[in-house]
Write the structure tokens for this entry.
Amino acid sequence: MSGLVRNMMVQAQPKFQVFLKYAKVELTPPTLGEIPQIRAGIGKLMSGARTGKWKELSVREAWLNSLVFAEVLFWFYVGECIGKRHFVGYKV
């Protein structure tokens, strides 16, 4: 049994290092220097929605945007289920 666990640890180590590498970049909160970029991105998104630029997306871009939207919605739902500790409704 000990050999099996040791073998699993050896195999998991490189994958864990890759996870840590990306987690340090992707899971950090924005710095104060990145706030203007975020505001510019939101402004660009809003102006694109007003001018109808979203109609000019390719099918691939629209599909990817739909997948991102679905993922955000899914994780919101999962967070709600975890928070209320039930799949449907709140226990009152």
